[in-house]
Amino acid sequence: MKNILVTGGAGYIGSHVVKQLGEAKNYNITVIDNLSTGNNDAILYGNLIQEDLSDFDKIEKIFKNNKFDAIIHFAASIVVPESVENPLKYYLNNTINTTNLINLCVKYNVNKFIFSSTAAVYGDAKEIPVKETTETNPINPYGMSKLMSEKVLKDAAIAHDNFKFVILRYFNVAGADVKGRIGQSFPNATHLIKVAAQTVLGQRDHLNIFGDDFDTPDGTGIRDYIHVDDLANAHLIALEYLENNDSDIFNCGYGHGFSVKEVIDVMKKVSGNDFKVVTAPRRAGDSAQLISNNQKILNKMNWTPRYDDLELICKTALDWERKLDLKKEVV
Ligand SMILES: NC(=O)c1ccc[n+]([C@@H]2O[C@H](COP(=O)([O-])OP(=O)(O)OC[C@H]3O[C@@H](n4cnc5c(N)ncnc54)[C@H](O)[C@@H]3O)[C@@H](O)[C@H]2O)c1
Fold this sequence. Notes:
Elements: E1 2-7, H1 12-24, E2 27-33, E3 47-50, H2 56-65, E4 70-73, H3 80-85, H4 87-107, E5 112-118, H5 141-159, E6 164-170, E7 172-174, H6 192-200, E8 207-210, E9 222-223, E10 225-227, H7 228-244, E11 248-252, E12 258-259, H8 260-271, E13 277-280, E14 289-290, H9 295-300, H10 310-330
Parallel strand pairs: 1-2, 1-4, 2-3, 4-5, 5-6, 6-11, 7-10, 8-13, 9-14
Antiparallel strand pairs: 9-12
This protein binds nicotinamide-adenine-dinucleotide.
Nicotinamide-adenine-dinucleotide (NAD) is lined by residues 8, 10-14, 32-38, 52-54, 74-76, 78, 93, 97, 116, 118, 170, 172-173, 186, 191.
């Protein structure tokens, strides 16, 4: 059995990874989460230690009292517009707390570090599809806080022989557990597919399209939507990968994209609901297209996507949203 520490394991993506680790049956799982956006119910396996990563003394005690083989670090603040208004929250929670975790890993010999990074490190990408070698140039504090953490990881791995990392740069994560057990629960999430599902259920009066004058075939932004369980699986593969390979960075996406209008059409189709859509001005910092080149993860890590299907992504997201809606009615 391997002992795995998962920070942010009560959150959207972390809970899907905890689920897959639990189902794999050869991992002991410890979750650290402050439940600020996560949910206790989402942790299907392992033990939760409810703690904030900024409490360095308490976090160090957890490292002292356990012998972890690897850490998968999800905990972060993730809302781009908020990061523009309150950048220090992002540098503290994302960069400083990550640096402290890296320091503790080095100190307590936790030699494998899987890090949740983001396509936001590329900013307005210089080439599409985006390769791992494409220039990084974040255009908001969220992306910069993640890129800075990447740099700390790289420098730590250079200085400390045994310490290795896999950085996974996620594109647009969407969908939910196909069995409907977990999904994205935080009500104020800003992700298009979740917001579309909330609109289907009447929780929102309409769905905004932020800009229809981009240089794309239908004028709306194009993104690479990856199902959360395919992404989660990449973390389990990354754990294995580090057994015999060096540190590396991988894009996590399907290598093709859909426009906002295409996503809306699919959500309307799977829900049978012709919800109201309103065109709004572009948001600062939104680029026309962001699509991954995923050849590296396919070839080097043998990652095999199973849910590359926008209808399935929208349907699982909608089913999950319905479940949340029912829970609210019961309460
Ligand atoms: N959702 C996406 O589309 C997306 C895209 C790219 C990258 N990511 C990255 O994936 C990771 C997970 O994102 P998510 O969508 O699951 O978000 P989420 O908000 O659902 O999960 C984050 C979890 O971390 C916990 N947390 C936050 N700060 C903490 C702290 N200081 N101490 C302890 N726990 C803390 C929260 O309670 C929550 O459970 C993040 O690092 C994010 O930057 C997400």
